[in-house]
Queue: 2 jobs
Job 1
Amino acid sequence: MHLSSADLLPLSIALPLVAALVVAPGRLPAALSKLVAAAGFAAPAVIALWLWSRFPAGFAGGYPFNWSHDTGLGKLGIQLTLGLNGVSLPLFVMAGLVGLAAGLYALQSKAERLHLYLALLLVMQAGLMGVFASVDVFFLYIFHELALIPTFIMVGVWGGRDRSYAAMKMTIYLTVGAMLSLIGLIALYVKGGAGGPFDLIHLRTALLAHPLGVVWQKNIFGLLMFGFGTLVSLWPLHTWAPLGYGQAPSSAAMLHAGVLKKFGLYALIQIALPLLPLGALAWAKPLAVLAVVGNILLVGLITVAQRDLKQLVGYSSVMHMGYAFLGLACGTAAGLGGVVLLMVAHGLSVALLFLLSTSIHRRTQTFDLDAMGGLARRTPVLAAFFVAATFASIGLPGFANFWGELTIFIAAWNFSPLLTAIAVAGVVLSAIYGLRAAAKVFFGPETEELAAVTAAQPPADLAWGERLPALILLMALLFLGFWPRALSDPLNSALGAAPASASAPSAPAVAQ
Amino acid sequence: MTFAAMNPALLRFVSDSNDWNAIMPELLLGCLALFLLVLEIALPKKQHALIPGVAILGQLAVLLGLLINFNVVFEHPVTFGGLLYHSHSGQLMRIFFLLSSVLVSLLGTIALAKQRMPRIEFFHIVLVVTAALMLLVQSFNFVMLFVALETVTVGFYILVSYTRTNPLSLEAGLKYLILGALSSALLLFGIVLLYGAVGRVEIEGIVHTGFEFPTLQEFLASHPHNFLAGAGIVLVLAGVAFKIGAVPFQIWIPDVYQGAPTPVTAFLAVSSKAAGFAVLFLLVHRVFPAYLWLTLPILGVMAAATIIFGNLAALTQQNVKRLIGLSGVSHAGYLLIGVIAAATEPSLATGAVIFYLFAYLLASFAVFGVMTHVAGPDDSDQELTHYAGLARTHPFLATVLAVGLGSLAGIPPLAGFMGKLFIFIAAFQAGLYWLLAVAIFGVVISIYYYFGWIRAAFFESGVELDAPAALGRPARTPLGLMVGVALVMLTLATVLLGVYQGSLGSMLSLH
């Protein structure tokens, strides 16, 4: 059978699911089941990289690799349609890479009932690939939930001491967000010509031809903004995130904070902004203020006060979402491009930080920053990785994050100089907590508590099982830091078409 | 002189005798029910264990026959001189009730084995009630409707108090009897008022009365503001609201659900509720369409109150039978939204309600299936704490439970989510924004208690899992093959219907 590139998209979702089904019953010998799981994690990453290399240049706004199948709701205009455009491609690739890293890291972890843990991670991975590959809005939502459910279970079963409370809180917050956005999507479905195809391509043409009234646009955008915003931890609906990440097992935190959380932003960029331009305009100011004052300033200050390493990483990820929301609020092609770049970069860097904090915990038996110190002498490689990840997270040049933040600041200056100034000041905050954490863990004298732990069990440096996933993430961060064009070219082609289309219909650019 | 002219009565009999084919499934069920009693007498005591198997296989055979002859009844949609009307949704509901009774019988084989109770009568009554339920949803005449409904209700009086050694079961039976009789009285009074309002219409020697739905509908259409008819309609709705457990007629649910044997609770929760909705749908949209100005506001208030009450009351429950009963109340609320939306969006809302009912059946029986295995000899004592460590000791049952509860909670990509999605879409199209807001509120609350149940089964690290006595929970029943297969199928169907509706999806837009 001849496989075209488009057939690879459903495979990137199906293969992890198949692997999950094979691994889940736990009947295979441990080594074989690990091998199957590894293949399940690697397949989407390989497919993503392959499609990236095959992505046609100068493809303005359309969806190459289109693939669709009617699952029975064709009459309601809902069918499984997959495809990648310039916005989804970077995130699809990032999902593949972070998934591979999280999977590899899980393989060497000593989790109880490892086969179930791996199976849930594989289901999550399948859902994540589906989220960014979906063109149909309905399936976009379904895939997000498919990835979300395993998170709750993983937090509840394999999480830290407060896992039960954390899982419950996450579930309720994220359900509220999901329900609000569901109503927004239903409204969009009904108002956008119910019964017509419910995919991004057709919705865009339909709503360009007959835009919704201002009131409906405002209402629907508000629902979507707060709904998806909750999923991305928009202040003040963010409190589930640090708690949940603090308790989540490392691979689940990597996949959720790194990839799944980006779904809300992605949906806002792909659905809300292009389809509801007037609504976006009306909500831009409140969104920007919430993001800058709430996420960047307040949460930034809270992050500085953290003593627990994993909580600190969790709060910092909430804070960085503020920059993404600020870029969203600008609504220009440059701002959105910056958001997507930042989403990719942040996904890679926060996953790396969660991975490394767990590795640190394994050696120190604590997440308490005050109880650590001087680890660099014993584990130089781990220290090097952590410092690099911290630099990336702060947004130093040379790492992918730099380009994302820089572009957002440039775009935001035209939008509001005051907010931009506060946001730039936020970078100082992230430098303070990032560098302080690195210093407390790795440098200075060893504390007594740590000395007791290390005396009982001398910490070894990063093993290859931990090094490989960390290396994948760091290489990707550095590659994009030095060669952002690899992502910005497809992004430009997609975004150049999208905002302009608010004034002039670009029908030829839309692949039917 | 021809034979026909000579003997019109005989000819009428010959032509009417074809009508019996239309209710062949119900007739076969009745015969099967009697056959079970004969078997009990004829077979030696040792072989009585075979009888439930005969009942289940017989029902499966009837179900198969019904599926094969699905379209036959549409050739003559009205039978028995207007007593019955065979519609597409009616056929679907017949399948629904048969599926449900097969599953109730399966649960019965497990639950009854734990108590020293007469076995065979249970299956007998389930068959009779199911036949009556099937006639109920096809009835086209108030006399037919009332007789079928009473057959169902009387059957349930016996079933609810079936465990007569258990005081809670007897209490449940008494409560159900008194409140059931009250609701029947309300219904009957409403019917009589409607009958009186219509009077009699005589055309060419044929008498049409207010019992017949077409006559009643015509009368109501020509008198859209008749006070007597309006009062009758409200009373009829009240009688039906009792069946579906909508506020303010939900008061019996927690106690009756807790006291009744688990299979009977499942039967009440699924079949009885669904029958109520089928009747409500028929009455509101086919018989009383001229009185939508009256029925829709009542149903709207009822739906909102039902969702809010059901979810809030379920929050604090520790007994899982009460919990599932009250969560079932909230499901009635969501379904009521579908019934209301059908006034403006008939095609989508009808399909949505039917899809929701099927998804509810699959998920509910998955959950009840697990409940019968976790329950001990005291059927009314089923606490959340009994589920501690279920995922460790019985991973299969725990998975089934999680899928079932997830579907009830409406978590994608399970069937229950699709049901809610369709109802929400229909409601949005019908412009029921405030009901939609209430429904979303309800869904979010429901996550808390469904999740609490899942948490009890999955997250609690039971320390002494091997010593149930030490934990004060009953020993769990080992899983049988037949029930195991049924649970696998329920779980798979719940997942499959969530992601792949296939030809069922296109049925959604049918009338």
Note: Strands of chain B lie at 78-79, 84-85, 200-203, 206-209.
Job 2
Amino acid sequence: MNKGQGLLTVRDIHIYYGNIHAIKGISLVVRKGEIVTLIGSNGAGKTTVLNAVSGVLKTRQGSIDFEGTRINRLSPHSIVRMGISQVPEGRKIFSRLTVTENLEMGAFIRNDIKEIVKDMEGVFELFPRLRERRGQIAGTLSGGEQQMLATARALMARPQLLLLDEPSMGLAPLLVETIFDTIQRISEEGTTILLVEQNALMAFVIATRGYVIQTGRIALEDKIENLSKNEMVRDLYLGGDLD
Amino acid sequence: MSYLLNPQVIIDQIINGLTIGGIYALIALGYTLVYGILFMINFAHGEIFMFGSFGGFAALTYFVNSGFSDTHPGLSIVAAFLAAMVVSAILGALLERIAYRPLRNAPRLAPLISAIGASIFLQNVMMLIIKARMQVYPDIIQEEFLEFGWFSISYFQLFIISGSVLLMVGLYLFIQKTKTGKAMRAVAEDRDAASLMGIDVNRIILITFVIGSALAAAAGVMVGIYYTQIDHMMGFIPGIKAFTAAVLGGIGNVPGAMLGGYFLGLAEAFGVLFMPAEYKDVIAFGLLVLVLIFRPSGILGEVVSERA
């Protein structure tokens, strides 16, 4: 495989909510094997960008290419088949389905039943809590368990690119660490990751590169070590208390 | 009112109630499946039931004229059911595609008006086909009664009761166990999240219409066999009553529609012991009013919460 080649290439996209121009020309690249993070304050447009990649939102201008194929006119379900899975904001697990059924839905695009069973074992390995609760109705899980389920469900599609939207939201600090450790493990097993986070401190621990979004535009793009030295990033997103 | 204490009368009415209740339940399932996914009432569902009944009628008539039913009566009936289900399934799919899908994101009133329009359109199409004349279902099997000491049950009733239970068990297993069934539940809960799983939401919605329509068609053939006379308006009252049954059980809830159907069937069967048979419809709609006042979410319905 061509390491360093762009797996996902977003070029100058514009997105509107009605008349509101939410994304004003954003370009970004995610290469194979990377963990790229998108940071920015509330309402800057991070989730909007992810939703454009997964096809939930349509771009008005610009292009999104995945492995050389234009995907910004495809429906979300076809984009999943191309190898992109999203852990949406607010998790959006199927609360009336059991944990196992949620995972089965994650593997909806696949028909290799034996491999699906194997992968389910794999995600149970990653999230042992889910194994204990496999027969339970997902709506009865705790917030942290629901985040685990949402992540595990996305992995069941065997994505090449995993889009993670605020995996730390609403979780206790200890759980946040567990989730981020797991994200790192997922990356080490060969999945490329695009991570949207408000908790930049955590995102910087695992990410290789980062983009800073401000009001619908990219303000900065750099390797994490450089971003974490940047004064503006430190003041605005790291609370100035790194080290 | 001494006959109320007669166990034979009570058992007869239970059998009648289960027969008609099974038919209501089969139709009610179509309302509830569609509502569960689209939050709309398919008011043309009664006409899908009517078309199914005519599909079965056409097949049976053909088998009688060709002499096939003389040699293979059982097979003829099975084939008539299949023909009816295919007719209604296609009709349901067309209805979704033409009358509802273009209005998917329109205000809620628009698909409702479209449904009523489709309903009137389909009644008139059938009226033209049959030239507004009542049709009589060919009787392939003579109605006979099975005697069990102090009560009896007709073959038709036994057939309808067991057939509707069989179809409902099949539907329940399909929804609970198959991949498509689970996807239906996922789409019903959250369409966007389902599409992020790679589920083609439009396809699942189409399948939902197809399944609901096929069940209504089965009910249509049962009504044809049981009551023998059918016409283009036959979908109206059973349609509204099955809708009542779906609301009674909790609209959107599959076991609720089954329960509501039987509840309504039994209520009507026992109601005629207390008042003249012409008041049968009053019982159904009176029950609907009571449920809407005291338990608007229905017997098994969850309290509907606003989705974010």
Note: The longest helix of chain A spans residues 173-188.
